Request: fold
Amino acid sequence: MPSLRTAEAAISISPNPLINALGWLIGLVVACGIVVINSETHTDLAPTILYITLLLMAANLFSINAVISIALMCILLLTAMFLYNGGYQRWDSTTGFFRCLTALSAITFLALRSKYAADRLRLNEVYLIGAQRLSQTGSVGFRGDGEEMSWSDESARIFEYPLTQPPTAAMVVARTHPDDLASVYEVFAKAARHEPLIEIKHRLLMPDGRIKHVHMIASPLFKQQESCEYLGAIMDITASKEAETALFCAQAQLAHVTRVTSLGELAASIAHEVNQPLSAITSSGEACRRWLDRPVPDLNEALQSLDRIIASSCRASDVISRIRALSRKCDPLRQPESLNNIVSETLGLVQQEMAHHNISPQVELLAFSGQVQVDRVQMQQVIINLIINACHAMGAVKVRDRVLHVRTWISDDEAVVEVADQGSGIAADVLPSLFTPFFTTKESGLGMGLSICRSIIDFHGGRIWATSTVGQGTSFKFALPLLTSGGAN
Reply:
């Protein structure tokens, strides 16, 4: 990065060679004028005015060192001409010389101060422009009661307009994605109401079809009686949005792999769930045949057997549908669901797994009004993972003590689910790492189950945590925001 001195030197002279050449030419003309006037007049006032003119020109064109050099040259020339013309022999000429010298010195001091302040201002502008370009953050000024706007060069680059084109609200609207126009109009409405803080995230639709994501925060710069000027920062967050989308897709793929793996662990439970209605269908079909094979067929009993066959087949179909949903790879679909129903359905899938581990479930579902906006399959995945972990945690516990507590309840506008085991517990220093990717307390574990559970709960705007006491078991809880009466979180 260039030093401060290098940056000051870079901004002291115009980057346009024509302007520099013109400045030197005008300076030469003024210098020649000084020589001519000095040769034709014996007063100090006229050349002093030209010296001051040359000095002010130099302050606007050249570096501080050049201004100092020119100022010293002017003072020396003024003094030399005074001595050459013999002005020291007359009192009035001497006093005039000192007046001109004092004026020239004062103008030099003020010009140097002005030059230093202007250079510092331009230096700060260079750094600000560079910082905006690096961070892809521009500044923008606007009012709610007007069409005119102002913005920095980086804002113009974000919206992909020429830097020389004055910005207007219509230009912003023209670049806004049609689905986000209402949000942009609301920004101007908030500015018209003089709200203290305005924030918006919306999309831009560029002329070539590209989509950009921007984030703007604005606050009042100053207020008048009927108008309010806002100063805002607008950031191009397209890259972070694309990274977020890629991360979400990767998490969804990893969650799918984990679900399929869990189905492998639940093979016995799945087989049991399917075999139960199939066995019922077989027994009902045999009963129906017996009722029909009688000398006088009992049609009423036969019809009841057929009804049981239909009911059992529907039950088998539901089980298979739930299993297919768990194994299917698809985007999450959040919709209003009963948390109690999700927990009950999931317990049916893992019932045989718990029986295999000789675990007695104690279920207490109190979230009767627990409507949440969730993806049903993902919630089942979280609950299955927690229950399987609890089953494994009680592997070394006596059979009579293998009790799994599954509870739901409502607390402070949240629906809470708890899965608690009676295992050996987890040490306090290990608890903070439970949801870290690839961290596991199992010898053959991958350490991704709980991490995926946390990402799923975070995606649904909830929270998940664990508490444990060594020797007394571990409790995992997650809470999800309840649906409001309007149907949205």
Notes: The chain has four domains: 4-132, 136-236, 241-331, 332-489. Confidence is low (pLDDT under 50) at residues 1-15. The chain is about 55% helix and 20% strand.
